[in-house]
Amino acid sequence: MSDDAAAANVVRGRIRFQDDQEMTMRLCPELKQFYQDHSLDVSKLTTSSSLSSPWRFVRLNPRFDTTETLELLRKELVDHVIDKNKNHTTTIAATATRTEQEPLAVPWLDSCWAFYALPGSFSLASSTCYRSGRIYGMDISSGAGIAALLTNVHDQKTATTNTTTTSSDDKTEIRVLDLCTCPGLKLLTMADYFYQMSASTTSNKSTKVKVVGVDINSSRMDKCKAIVQKYWVDSASPHQSSAGGTANNDVVVQLHLADGTTFGGPAYDTEESLVFDSRVAIEERGERGERKRLNKSARARHRKRLRQIANVEGMRPETNGDDDTVTNTNPSFIEKFDYVLVDAECSTDGSFKHIRERIKAEHDSSTTVHQEENRLLTDQAKLADLVALQKKLIESGFRLLKPGGSMVYSTCSLSEEQNEKVVSWLLETKKDAFLIPIHFPSIMQSEFVTEGTLKGTVRFYPNLVDDTTSEPTLLGDGFFASKLGKCIGASYEQ
Ligand SMILES: C[S@@+](CC[C@H](N)C(=O)[O-])C[C@H]1O[C@@H](n2cnc3c(N)ncnc32)[C@H](O)[C@@H]1O
């Protein structure tokens, strides 16, 4: 075997090299060292175009008929294959594999999450299903993080029919917080999960769910608002909406433009931060019949309505339950949450898109943003600032978690400093915090999904293996996830 051929072999967590690429690009030495230190053998990298997943993952929007969406997707995939093969004389049936023509259900995640894999070459931007909001583009590793947060059983092979832990009949509201929410794909996954639960419930007593997203970045928040509305989170279904049907008020989505490290604290002003509420969007759509750009007076009414909601629900001093006296030196002024996601700002070094951009940045002086990102990994002072922010975010998320609730801390970094060490820090500083093991039995035997260096956490390494076989495993991007619980009551074992 030649050296190049040997390099093309994939071992755990390593990037696949293609020896037919002419141009070899190299990372700056520090960055190269970083990846080597984190199990990514990047001694030689090919052109940026080769550094991508064989798969593109999508999730189906439950507000549309899923059989219909899958049928439409199938047609789009066939067109895609025709397009790819149009310069070849052989027939499509002879050249296209099943995996190219079928949306493939991800076998290792419960089907309630509706994740499908499409060929990596399929363009979402030109897909009608995507443009009409029938499918979301979302990596499967991120999906696994949400499954870990909202369910106890994470793996398809062991999942039972009822995976929810939340549909207790005597509970009136489930509260979910996404502390770093933009652009909002995980927020939508959570809202959709509860939407499906409420749509399928047979109980007369409906469970109300509030999903609250927080982010500090205003341009990302604008994008998030657009995404939330694109996917009809503020409606039962696009068909029902255009036909004047009922909207879904059981799952409310709220967005706050705010600093997650102080959100809900004493000096915190909900009235200022609330920028979207799905109930207001539903009311406005009811008045106007369809979504249009708001004019000046409509914008003023919109602000007023949001303020009214914020006033009613916002600055509510919490009751002095015995749970808070121990954990909370910074009492919260909003009701606490059953589920908290802290998908923290990170150095993004596990993500395909960012790795690609990083490599380009090292060779192209015009891409200064990504050169700056590269420095995040190699400049110790910048890394320390980032870790300090992550600690504040995880601490804030834990402060806002109800005793008995669950929280996921995740990043798309492979760095221990930003992952296991942040979680260990929280466990050491909060006496009522404990780790809940995340387990995906069928894939954790694969070379790309392992337990983290902290027992019970999980690491997904970016999967660049061309596993487009008849029974592919379907793994995605680099990701780290940990699940934490909060003890109930003041007297607990340390
Ligand atoms: C990894 S991204 C989140 C991705 C998002 N969870 C999703 O699935 O679409 C991290 C986000 O954290 C936000 N962020 C950074 N510092 C923050 C802070 N102090 N408070 C709230 N959000 C913050 C960034 O603006 C960014 O949108």
Automatic annotation (TrEMBL):
Belongs to the class I-like SAM-binding methyltransferase superfamily. RsmB/NOP family. One of its GO terms (biological process) is RNA methylation. It comes from the Eukaryota. S-adenosyl-L-methionine binds at residues 335, 343. It comes from Nitzschia inconspicua. PANTHER family: NOP2 YEAST -RELATED NOL1/NOP2/FMU SUN DOMAIN-CONTAINING (PTHR22807), SAM-DEPENDENT MTASE RSMB_NOP-TYPE DOMAIN-CONTAINING PROTEIN (PTHR22807:SF16). One of its GO terms (molecular function) is RNA binding. It holds the Pfam family Methyltr_RsmB-F. Residues 335-487 form the SAM-dependent MTase RsmB/NOP-type domain. This is tRNA/rRNA cytosine-C5-methylase. Keywords: Methyltransferase, RNA-binding, S-adenosyl-L-methionine, Transferase. The active site is at 412 (nucleophile).
